[in-house]
Amino acid sequence: MPSYKIVFLGGGNAAGYAARAFVENGLKAGELAIVTEEPYCAYERPALSKGYLLGAARLPGFHTCVGGGGERQAPEWYSEKGITYLTDSRVTKADLANRTLTLENGEVLSYEYLIIGTGARPVRLTEFAVPGAELGGIHYLRDVKDADALVAAIATAKERAGKAVVVGGGYIGMEVAAGLAANGLAVTLVFPENHLLNRLFTPELAAVYERLYDAKGVKMVKNARVVGFGGVDGKVSSVGYTDATGAVHQLEASLVVVGVGARANVELFQGQLEMTAGGIKVDGQMATSVPGVFAVGDVAAFPLTSVATGQVSHARQEHVTHCRLSAAQAAKAILGLSPTPYDYLPYFYSRVFALSWVFYGEAPADAVKVHFGDMTEAKCFGCLWLGAGGKLVGAFLEGGSADDAAVLKGAVAKGLRLPAEEGGLGEAVVGSGAAVVAQLKAKL
Ligand SMILES: Cc1cc2nc3c(=O)[nH]c(=O)nc-3n(C[C@H](O)[C@H](O)[C@H](O)COP(=O)(O)OP(=O)(O)OC[C@H]3O[C@@H](n4cnc5c(N)ncnc54)[C@H](O)[C@@H]3O)c2cc1C
């Protein structure tokens, strides 16, 4: 039975960053094996809904760690470092008591330390028995295989002047709708909320992006619930939805992309590990309830301190920065470097058309929201969320530089006090985005 000191189960985005951290901290050849069901070594998954749909990103160009400003780790990188990368290798059983993993082909691996990075999978409408949800032409986007299928479907839809419908107004829905529109398709974005990215955007922020989608020819159907799909010869031809009054409508569609959330891949470990918040419960070293077993990335529910309340609760974060940092944290813990407990400031980013935004912290509904910058021209604008006592708990910026983003991050991490009654940010609040960033910088 092949035996390794460390096995990384998952081999996705986090795996590349774990491998880098191991190598930087003294991993010896032969000690690490990475096992993934995908046919590729780790890559920067966010590219799939952005450059990949535009033909700009293709492997090996976006292997980790290029997204984090590091070296591009193509397959040769792993072999040079003495790391075994088992691709096309689905793990069907994890026996944590005996420290073994069984692969689909029956092979069994043993380990001393295990890092679980099995990520998440898209929520499928078939799970809710939505009529017609099993038809061909309905796409989900998680890996290169999905992205290749979508790129091929885009080409076919273009040839036939087909119409596309995107279900879901969150990150994936917004990015995919932008990608399809940039490919010249007629796109309708359908979602149940009353504005885009309801989880984060204020109505004012959403309005800026909605104007952009409108200008790009993307139609939006809000307050709409998809209730079924019509098909011809096993292939989708229409999307049925109900509006706020319950009336049913149909949209023509030869291509559908669904982005309605994700679920962590935890099934292999049910009954063996403590679970919480839809994921595997870990501590500040990314260690699970079983000694020697760690979990990182999308699958890990880790202690997260609320910027707004200071309370700590276990949470999952499906974001690439967390996957990178948590992977490095687990690697250091396994190497006995006793890293300081994981201290993560939530960070989200997205790019649609020529726009690009960042967000740090939290966006509680009861916070005071202070918008700033040029929202009419959609140039450099944003929003600050002020919690109790005027404490800055969340900051959003569109169109800023990397230095500006660092200022926002620092300001939220520090919990700057910007009480409205003391003038807050003064004139800058109604001034330009650059002026607000400058004021925040001056207060750091
Ligand atoms: C289309 C898309 C766009 C995104 N855009 C952004 C963005 O703009 N910004 C942002 O912050 N985040 C974004 N994300 C989220 C980000 O990509 C994830 O947070 C990140 O990939 C998580 O890394 P991970 O290693 O935990 O999981 P993953 O990268 O999903 O890797 C998990 C791996 O485990 C494999 N696996 C699962 N089960 C098994 C098994 N039983 N046996 C073998 N292998 C298995 C999977 O096939 C996969 O390769 C995006 C995600 C997607 C899908």
UniProtKB/TrEMBL annotation:
Q: Name one GO molecular function term.
A: monodehydroascorbate reductase (NADH) activity
Tell me which residues make up the FAD/NAD(P)-binding domain.
4-311
Q: Keyword set for this entry?
A: FAD, Flavoprotein, NAD, Oxidoreductase
What's this protein's name?
A: monodehydroascorbate reductase (NADH)
Q: What class of enzyme is it?
A: oxidoreductase
Q: What Pfam family is a match for this entry? A: MDHAR3-like_C
Identify the cofactor(s): FAD
Q: Which lineage?
A: Eukaryota, Viridiplantae, Chlorophyta, core chlorophytes, Chlorophyceae
Does this entry carry the keyword Flavoprotein?
A: yes
